[in-house]
Design a protein that fits this description.
Two copies of one chain form a homodimer.
Chain A (H helix, E strand, L loop, with lengths): L4 H8 L3 H9 L6 H14 L5 H8 L4 E7 L11 H14 L3 E7 L5 H8 L4 E5 L4 H9 L4 E4 L10 E4 L1 H14 L5 E5 L5 H16 L9 E3 L5 H10 L1 H7 L3 E4 L2 H13 L9 E6 L2 H5 L5 E4 L2 H16 L8 E4 L2 E3 L8
Parallel strand pairs in A: 1-2, 1-3, 3-4, 4-5, 5-11, 6-7, 6-8, 8-9, 9-10
Antiparallel strand pairs in A: 10-12
Helix pairs in contact in A: 1-2, 1-3, 2-3, 5-14, 8-9, 10-12
The structure holds a DNA duplex (30 and 30 nucleotides).
GO molecular function (chains A, B): DNA-binding transcription factor activity; transcription cis-regulatory region binding
Pfam families (chains A, B): LacI, Peripla_BP_3
Keywords (chains A, B): DNA-binding, Transcription, Transcription regulation
Chain lengths: 337, 337
DNA sequence: TATTCATGTGGGAACGGTCCCACATCAACG
DNA sequence: CGTTGATGTGGGACCGTTCCCACATGAATA
């Protein structure tokens, strides 16, 4: 149905080589021929076939993005969605398209799928098992990780400095005079949550606070409902413990916890300060707006795509770990004790 | 770098036709040969080249999704992101991949891009100009619209019954005894906002309420900040008007407005009820949780993909307008007067 | 015994581009 | 006047599949 370069050539009375040259701009073409060919292309609304082009050039200009998510939403995720947005936007400016898949079970299936599609590169978001990495490494496709498990060997990765962010949070809360801080920690199998908690706890001790194991509760997931539930379950303990602040290892958990508090007539921040991590969209929308450690989600996505492009173009990439510094965003959910 | 079917054939000592037959399962192959070939495929981790396959089969198994957005976020959008999620998920189960682009200027560029990529079908989300539709129609690619301008002729489209939803909202608020309702209407160039307002206003009159033009304020966009600002700008008027309820044509606007109210010590819902439309994720997370007219976002996305698949497979599609009924979700931001 | 048919395999064209190589023309130069 | 080089064009191999057609074999049937 679509026109081919051959048909264009025929109508212009030239060879397909010439048409190809006109389109690509490579090689010599006389102005008359070029004009004639372009006119016919315009008239017929000929669109070069990217599939055929990929066939010979061995480049699809497609990038595969694999996100590991237990729960299905990929794209509308408040954190990963932002990273993805930036990847898509940057990809467009570099003339790539993005194909997204979710990997449910840390298996190799999603990678297989992308490999068959012959993507030019692969971006792995969130954590992946070493065996998946090894599998991908075995094929010679450029790839990198975003916000992944950085303990995998020799993999270029883009990450937030989670540990430093945790420290910033502790330092800020302690600076406000809080001595009793209740912490809701997301799944420790997830490196981000682990490091945020680690940084927070260490800094908390560094500030001279007594390590109090009771003050940390571990969540099974990092959802809003889980944050709410964590607060609910620990409510008697919380009330008895005279805590004046809550720190959660991400905003969604923090917001859930905060909702529980507000619902139970605890005044935030007057009675209890609440602090999160990530700076997702609704952190600023909530009432009170949430103080948080903002992660450069857009910058991370953008950088990931730029570096991947370099890898694809075989340009040297200096650093293996591309780190982004989070920064404190002070809002209304925290106040001095 | 990747192995080809030819290499596999050579190693198995058979022709590439035979290997092709083993892989596809079409035609006769003896068990011995099949076993041998499969073993080599396994050993070498041969992955069929989807590009070459697309070349000959004239099917890429890729679907293009074009979303019209003035502001850039595509994917992390609380409403369209959900639709997209459902499309991606459903596409995967039908063996398609999704390529997403944003169209910034209602031009034909995004469509061109997809056409060059030879996508098997096209999903247009949000509104598009007639000329873009005409352009696409000119090529013989299956396509449909989701939540678009349904006034375009002869286009299969998936929509929410926005007008009915507007009526439901009015009926509900009036039923609670509210007589003075302040309405924040999103951009009327957007059919959804227009219809929601239309349904709401009509039903409001049908309930015997005096049409009061002062009670409607028109927003320039449909963001949280705009909702907040609308409330702020109309605050003197609002206070003077003794309004007891606010209806916004989407949740984001409603949430913004509600935040302003709460911030100014207006008790929601005791003094003022607030109601939105869409049922985005944070509607239920907010405090108080937002009463809204829930749109079947996931169902719409899923259905869109299923119907597009039918179009691609040349199966008959009966109805041109595929409508989804919204349903009231009663939460804590509304109460009887 | 000759014919038919199921089973199994290989050869090669086709898909729509890119790009190398061959070749033609013509001006400039030694 | 032959050589060189710039300019311009066409032929055809190639990318990695699919699938049609030809063909071979052996058992069953007329």
């Amino acid at each position: 149905m679509d026109y081919t370069i051959k048909q264009i050539a025929q109508m212009a009375g030239v060879s397909k080589s010439t048409v190809s040259r006109v389109i690509s701009g490579n090689g010599y073409t006389s102005p008359e021929v070029r004009g004639k060919v372009l006119q016919i292309i315009e008239e017929l609304q000929y669109k070069p076939n990217a599939v055929a082009r990929a066939m010979v050039s061995q480049r699809t200009n497609n990038i595969g993005v694999i996100i590991y998510r237990r729960d299905y939403p990929i794209v509308s995720h408040p954190f990963y969605g932002k990273i993805l947005d930036a990847i898509i936007k940057t990809a467009a400016s570099l003339n790539y398209s993005i194909i997204v898949t979710t990997d449910y079970d840390l298996s190799v299936r999603a990678a297989d799928f992308m490999l068959e599609k012959r993507v030019d590169g692969l971006i792995l978001i969130s954590r992946f098992h070493q065996n998946v990495i090894d599998y991908i490494k075995h094929f010679n496709v450029p790839y990198l990780m975003v916000n992944g498990s950085t303990d995998v060997e020799g993999v270029i990765h883009v990450v937030n400095q989670d540990e430093a962010g945790g420290r910033q949070a502790a330092s800020y809360l302690c600076g406000l005079g809080h001595r009793r801080i209740f912490t809701i920690a997301g799944p420790q199998t997830h490196r981000s949550h682990y490091l945020r908690l680690k940084g927070f706890s260490e800094q908390r001790e560094a500030e001279g606070l007594h390590p109090d194991s009771q003050s940390i509760t571990y969540a099974d997931s990092s959802t809003f409902d889980e944050g709410y539930r964590m607060m609910q379950d620990n409510w008697p303990l919380f009330a008895a413990g005279q805590y004046t602040a809550v720190f959660a290892t991400n905003d969604t958990l923090a917001l859930g916890a905060m909702k529980f508090l507000i619902e139970h007539s605890v005044r935030v921040p007057d009675e209890v300060s609440v602090m999160g991590f990530d700076d997702v969209d609704h952190a600023s929308m909530y009432f009170p707006s949430l103080t948080t450690v903002a992660v450069e989600k857009e910058e991370m996505g953008k950088k990931a795509m730029i570096v991947l492009d370099k890898l694809i173009r075989q340009e040297p990439v200096m650093q293996q770990a591309i780190e982004f510094e989070p920064k404190l965003v002070l809002r209304k959910s925290t106040s001095s004790k």
